[in-house]
Design a protein that fits this description.
binds guanosine-5'-triphosphate; alpha/beta; binds magnesium ion; 9 strands; seven-stranded parallel beta sheet; 3 domains; Rossmann fold
């Protein structure tokens, strides 16, 4: 586990509060809409620099209100293109949007997605949009925590909606999807094996299915299959997953997608499921943060510890089995702490 890194890049602004707003200088800059401060702080979050935590502590009470939309699905189904469409729609409604792309294979660059067929230009000076790509590896506190923290910074910055894109291929997606308030899974016509994948994992956590590229043959069939699957699944808190066909090339369906998201957010509110989900997310985060500390503490305690070394020697020599050794180490740690 990492050792806390020294604040090498610039002097750490200590959680200097005491001003009228109760915010330190960095938190104030975030709230005032300083993009460079935001970008720098997200980098700090990724690197696990301690000064980021102090700003997050200050900003926490001001976060937790924006819808967090998780968008996932297999490689190349058009997630980024769809997000671009959503951004344009939301900007036309005067809403500010933050986007985090985890492990993007088609990076957001300069406010445009470079697809081979679609290139959507956006005003690079539009301060109502902020993109950030993040790698799922190399995060000091794990990608889930970095994502949570980045979302909070975007919210404190003033974003009304935050969208998180991940490539639907594993545990990271499920974890990040769990951070979202509305989970969107994007697929394309001719699902084939994808339906299996969806059944296996993402299907259970989708609130809205998008069948993108629906100008291609087979789109209606795919939507029908998904609707069937959705109706067979147990409605969670009175919500049956919605299926929305879209086509970015024909610029269709984005309004329906946004409406489905809004309907889901409203259903969460009405049924009380949103409140429960908030509690579950808080508990999950607290658990992760606590476990991280316990693990670090244990590692530090065991490093260069002679009793630990001799336990290890015993296991290697097959004088002690690893189960007994782990039990002893556990009891010894508990005794000391
Ligand atoms: N025919 C068709 N092509 C589309 C549509 N939407 C996106 N595409 C194309 O699909 C390709 C992938 O689009 P992206 O938006 O990068 O897809 P993605 O899911 O974000 O891809 P990854 O992030 O790499 O997983 C690009 O060539 C797009 O131009 C659509 O509705 N119809
Ligand atoms: Mg993408």
């Amino acid at each position: 586990m990492r050792a806390p890194r020294a604040a090498a890049r610039r002097p750490a602004p200590p959680g200097a509060t005491g001003s009228k707003s109760g915010l330190g200088p960095v938190a104030k800059r975030i709230q005032a809409g300083d993009r460079r401060a935001l970008a720098r702080l997200i980098s700090d979050v990724e690197a696990g620099r301690p000064e980021a935590r102090s700003v997050l502590r200050e900003l926490y009470p001001r976060t937790g209100r924006a819808p967090i939309i998780g968008v996932t699905g297999p490689l190349g189904v058009g997630k980024s293109s769809l997000i671009n469409e959503l951004i344009q729609l939301l900007r036309s409604k005067g809403k500010k949007v933050g986007v985090i792309a985890v492990d993007p294979s088609s990076p957001f660059s300069g406010g445009a997605v470079l697809g081979d067929r679609i290139r959507i230009e956006r005003d690079p000076d539009d301060t109502g949009v902020f993109f950030r790509s993040m790698a799922s590896r190399g995060h000091a506190g794990g990608v889930s925590q970095s994502t949570r923290d980045a979302i909070r910074l975007l919210e404190a910055f003033g974003m009304d909606v935050v969208i998180v894109e991940t490539v639907g291929s594993g545990q990271v997606d499920v974890e990040i999807h769990q951070i979202a308030t509305t989970r969107v899974v994007v697929v394309v016509p001719h699902l084939g094996d994808e339906v299996q994948t969806l059944k296996a994992g993402l299907f259970e956590i989708a609130d809205v299915f998008v069948v993108n590229k629906s100008e291609l043959p087979g789109a209606e069939r795919a939507a029908k299959d998904l609707r069937e699957l959705a109706s067979l699944s147990v409605a969670r808190d009175g919500w049956t997953p919605r299926v929305v066909p879209t086509s970015v090339v024909e610029r269709r369906g984005t309004e329906d997608l946004w409406q489905a998201i809004l309907d889901h957010e409203e259903a969460l509110h009405q049924s009380g499921a949103g409140e429960r989900a908030r509690r579950e997310r808080a508990e999950q985060e607290l658990r992760e943060l606590l476990l991280e500390r316990i693990e670090r503490m244990a590692r530090e305690e065991l490093a260069d510890d002679t009793a630990w070394t001799s336990l290890l020697d015993g296991v290697v020599a097959r004088e002690t089995d690893p189960y007994t050794a782990a039990d002893r180490a556990f009891h010894e740690l508990r005794r000391r702490l």
